[in-house]
Structures are given as C-alpha cells and as structure tokens.
C-alpha cells in the first residue's frame, strides 16, 4: 500500500526564490493490486510525481509512505534499500543498450547484491533462475544472450518489464510505457503489465498519454492539471466534460471512435489469423 | 482582392556573423594590412636561405641513402627505449586518467570533486610535452625515465578530458534506470556508464598510444631518452644518412600503429 500525503514539488527554489510549481499538495493512496493511471497534459507533473516516489526527483514537501517507510525522508543506504522495493518501467525503455538482455534483467538485482558480485557478474543462482523465469514470462527466453540494442521496441519494453520485476518490487512505477510503440504493441504491453499486476497483487502507477488506452486497462484514474489533482475516480466516470477540464477543449468523441476502430481492426486480424490456422 | 500575391524570385543567404555592411568591408582590408606588416617584420635573409637550401639538399640526400647499419646499435637501443616508454606511459596514463575522468564528469560527482579533477586536467593540458620534458629532465636527469613521466602526465590530461566529456554526454535515461533499481554509485558506474563509454575509451587509448610514440621522438631531443635522443645525436654529428634512417623507421612505426589502431577500433565498435 502506497500513500502519498500533501506532496509538493517546486523546481528551482535555491536561495528561497519560488520557482515553478510542478506538484501542489497531491494526496492519494494506492491499495494492493490496484493499477492506477495518471493522466494529464504534458507538463502537468506526471513524470515528476512518479519520480518523487523513488526519489529520482527530490520532493519539496509532503510524505510518501510505502509500508512503514517514509520514502521522502530516507537517505543514503536506506534510500537505495527503498528504491529496490520499487520497480520502474521507462518511456524509451532505458535499457543499457550495450549490455545483454540477461545483464539488463539482472541489473534489477543491483540493490540486493554487493558491488563485487555485480562487478564479476556472479549473481546468486536463484537470481539467475528468476531472471530466466521472467524472460520466459515476457516471451523472450531465446533472446537472453542478445545485446539489448538488437531487439525491437516492443521486445525492449518487455525486457524493461522483466528488469523491473526482477527487483521483486512492492510497487511498480510506469512512465509512459507505450509512448514510442505502435498501437498494437502498445495494447500488448499494457495487457502484459496489467496481467502481471494481477498475478502478483502488485500496485502500480502508470503515466499514460493515451486516454482510451488508460480507460481500457486502468482500475482507477487520477487526472493532473498544472500539478494539482483534478480527477480521481473509476475510468468510466471520466466523461468528456472531465477530460476537457483536464486537457482543455478537444473532440473526445472522435478520439474514442478512432480507438474503437483500432480495437476492431486488431480483433479482425486475430480472427483472420485464427481462421487461417484452423 | 482576388489576384495572386507576388513572391520574390531571388533569395540570398543573409550574413550570419558580421551583420554590419561597413565592418564586412573594413575587416578583410585590416587583416590583409596586418599580414603585409607581419611579413615585413620577418627579416628574410636571401643569402642565408640559399645556404640553407644546400644543407636541406644534403639532408634530402641522406634521406635517399638512409644508413641503417653503421649506427644500428644506437638506433636499436633508442627504439627499444621509445617503445618501452610509450607503452608504460600509456598504460599508467590510462590507469590514472580513468578515475580523474570520472571525477571530472559533472553528471556523476559533487561539485568540489568535479572542480579538483577539472583543474588537474587543465594543468596537464596547458603544459606542452616539451616543456614538461625539460622540467623533468632537470629533475630526474637525462634518460627514458623523464620521458616516461612526461608522456604519462600528458596522457592524463588528454584521456581524462575526452573521457569526462564523453561521460557527460551519455544517455541519462539508462543511468536513471540503473539508479532506480537501488544500485550504489559504483554499480551505477559499472552498469550504466562503463558500457556506454567503453568503445570510445578503447579508441582513445589506442590513439594516445600512437601519439605517445610520436611524442617520444620529440621529447628525446630535449634529453628525455628514446629514439629522439638518437636522432638528435645523429643530426649533431651531421650524419644525415643515419638521421634519415631513423626518420624512416619512425614513419613506418607510426603508420603501422595508425593502421593497427584504426583496424582495432573498427572491430571494437
């Protein structure tokens, strides 16, 4: 269970002068197993919010509790201990391109093993076993020894997911997982993430640009606008008026129509494939 | 209001650097005037030039009939000294410059460490090899040890600066991802930074190896041992045929190193 209480972040406040407010008194909780979608226009503070949780960005005030730990207050070794409990999946995959797929997955264990162990690539047997199991789960068992830059976008994001899961996290942070993928791969990735969260009872916060995709896969949606929460509710409660409130005026009906076309096309393809096989 | 608008059919690139028309005329004239005045102050002595041509001809003649044999013992000795100096100095240079290079990367270390490491680099880079060699020869005496220290010191400035610049340009998202797993600073360096800069570091090291060999020929002239010392002696004794032989050997080795390192760099990418 993650609870965020009055979290604020102001950029560029060195010397006391007030800078840009990226987050303003954000408060919400994510119970076990819930997949929460964070929507809002660019610059609304979505990225800042999830990066405050694992402290890639320093919050200005407020508390972030994961279990018993206040993530906003830990430092040094405790911070690294806290980070390893939180898996993160990135927009442009952020794999270390010149390392192999296996090394990328094992890098999820860095917070658990001593430096010497990781330096000589001698990870404990159960870590390696688990890495293979995860690669099998995301369908990339045969690619373990390839270099990460030899994979396609969708495959890379699967490696990113396996890396995050190898941390055996208690929380998943997902930053625009589908922003650089095509619509079909995007759906596959979102489906994979939501399945995994269900299997493991894992709470997740997903930054997502694509509103229809969010409504299809999220359990709950939080809308941010200029650093403030303007919506918190079920995906079905997110109507056109609300979307206009979050993003500004736009033709939401047309966008949904397009999404439905995509989904129908996808289903057609699948039927055809099934028909061809049978 | 229905007729089509007329657009110009000519376009010229507007001046980018000096926008003032007058300055664009004055500046080339001023540069030309300075060039003429500077040439006038060179005191070119025609007679001396002709005399020099004669010496040059003797030199060229020596080149055409290089004498590898009569001073072969000295040449061999000089070459071995130079190659030893080059290799040891490059290895020591790399070992010292990697930590300094990491320390001089703004995105990895706190500001005080950054400033200290950048200052070390600045000192090493601001002193030319020959000047360092003159100091070190005075300190350690004639011979290859002074040369070794000179080359190692110069390698540090070169390698550490280029490595640091490369580290500052790594893909930040890869480093962020490794940081997010709870990795320590050392693990971050090893898993996110090293894979990104390794090919470049290897390339730079090979490049430095061949620079160091060339420099070893130059610093020998001020007494730091190696093939340069042999060359200097040969020229002092007017043995242009031996000097020619030495130069040919140096050229051959540099070319060899050049080919070998470019081949290696290509396969390492």
UniProtKB/TrEMBL annotation, chain A:
Single GO cellular component term: plasma membrane
GO-annotated molecular function: ABC-type phosphonate transporter activity; ATP binding; ATP hydrolysis activity
Membrane topology: Peripheral membrane protein
UniProt KW S-adenosyl-L-methionine keyword: no
Annotated stretches, region: Disordered: 257-278
Compartment annotation: Cell inner membrane
Pfam family name, one: ABC_tran
PROSITE patterns: ABC_TRANSPORTER_1, ABC_TRANSPORTER_2
Keyword annotations of the record: ATP-binding, Cell membrane, Membrane, Nucleotide-binding, Translocase, Transport
PANTHER family in the record: AMINO ACID IMPORT ATP-BINDING PROTEIN, PHOSPHONATES IMPORT ATP-BINDING PROTEIN PHNC
Name assigned to this protein: Phosphonate ABC transporter ATP-binding protein
Chain's gene name: phnC
UniProtKB/TrEMBL annotation, chain B:
Pfam families assigned: BPD_transp_1
Keywords per UniProt: Cell membrane, Membrane, Transmembrane, Transmembrane helix, Transport
Cellular-component GO terms for this entry: plasma membrane
Compartments where located: Cell membrane
Name the UniProt record assigns to this protein: Phosphonate ABC transporter, permease protein PhnE
Biological classification of the source: Bacteria, Pseudomonadati, Pseudomonadota, Gammaproteobacteria, Oceanospirillales
Domain ABC transmembrane type-1: 79-261
GO molecular function: ABC-type phosphonate transporter activity
Major subcellular location class: membrane
Xref: InterPro entries: MetI-like (IPR000515), MetI-like_sf (IPR035906), PhnE/PtxC (IPR005769)
Similarity comment: Belongs to the binding-protein-dependent transport system permease family.
Gene3D superfamilies cross-referenced by the UniProt entry: MetI-like
Residues spanning the membrane: 26-44, 87-109, 130-156, 243-264
The UniProt record lists the keyword Transmembrane: yes
Membrane topology: Multi-pass membrane protein
């Amino acid at each position: 269970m993650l609870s965020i209480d009055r979290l604020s972040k102001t950029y560029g406040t060195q010397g006391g002068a007030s800078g840009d407010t990226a987050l303003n008194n954000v408060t919400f909780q994510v119970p076990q197993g819930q997949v929460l979608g964070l929507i809002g226009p660019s610059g609304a503070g979505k990225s800042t919010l999830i990066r405050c949780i694992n402290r890639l960005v320093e919050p200005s005030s407020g508390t972030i509790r994961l279990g018993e730990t206040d993530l906003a207050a830990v430092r040094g070794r405790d911070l690294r201990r806290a980070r390893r409990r939180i898996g993160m999946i990135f927009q442009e995959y952020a794999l270390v391109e010149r390392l192999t797929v296996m090394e990328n997955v094992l890098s999820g264990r860095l917070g658990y093993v001593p430096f010497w162990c990781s330096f000589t690539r001698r990870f404990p047997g159960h870590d390696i076993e688990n890495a293979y199991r995860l690669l099998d789960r995301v369908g990339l068992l045969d690619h373990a020894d390839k270099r990460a830059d030899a994979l396609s976008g969708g495959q890379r994001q699967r490696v990113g997911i396996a890396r995050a899961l190898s941390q055996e996290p208690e929380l998943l942070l997902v930053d625009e997982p589908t922003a650089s993928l095509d619509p079909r791969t995007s759906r596959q990735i979102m489906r994979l993430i939501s399945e995994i969260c269900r299997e493991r009872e894992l709470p997740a916060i997903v930054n997502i640009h694509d509103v229809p995709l969010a409504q299809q896969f999220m359990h709950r949606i939080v809308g941010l606008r200029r650093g403030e929460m303007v919506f918190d509710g079920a995906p079905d409660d997110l109507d056109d008026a609300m979307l206009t409130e979050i993003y500004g005026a736009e033709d939401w009906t047309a966008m949904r129509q397009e999404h439905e076309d995509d989904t129908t096309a996808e289903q057609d393809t699948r039927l055809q494939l099934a028909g061809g096989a049978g | 209001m229905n007729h089509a608008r007329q657009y110009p059919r000519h376009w010229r690139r507007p001046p980018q650097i000096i926008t003032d028309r007058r300055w664009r005329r004055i500046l080339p004239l001023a540069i030309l005037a300075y060039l003429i005045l500077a040439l006038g102050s060179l005191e070119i002595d025609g007679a001396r030039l002709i005399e020099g041509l004669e010496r040059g001809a003797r030199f060229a003649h020596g080149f055409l009939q290089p004498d590898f044999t009569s001073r072969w013992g000295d040449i061999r000795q000089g070459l071995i000294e130079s190659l030893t100096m080059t290799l040891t100095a490059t290895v020591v240079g790399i070992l010292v410059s990697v930590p300094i290079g990491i320390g001089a990367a703004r995105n990895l270390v706190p500001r005080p460490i950054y400033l200290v490491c950048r200052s070390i680099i600045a000192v090493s880079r601001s002193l030319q090899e020959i000047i360092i060699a003159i100091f070190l020869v005075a300190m350690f005496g004639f011979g290859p040890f002074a040369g070794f220290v000179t080359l190692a010191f110069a390698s540090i400035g070169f390698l550490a600066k280029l490595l640091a610049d490369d580290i500052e340009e790594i893909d930040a998202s890869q480093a962020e991802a490794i940081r997010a797993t709870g990795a320590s600073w050392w693990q971050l360096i090893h898993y996110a930074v090293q894979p990104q800069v390794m090919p470049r570091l290897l390339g730079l090291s090979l490049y430095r190896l061949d620079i160091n060999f060339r420099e070893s020929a130059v610093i020998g002239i001020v007494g730091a041992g190696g093939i340069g010392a042999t060359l200097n002696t040969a020229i002092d004794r007017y043995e242009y045929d031996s000097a020619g032989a030495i130069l040919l050997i140096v050229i051959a080795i540099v070319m060899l190193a050049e080919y070998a390192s470019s081949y290696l760099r290509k396969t390492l990418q």
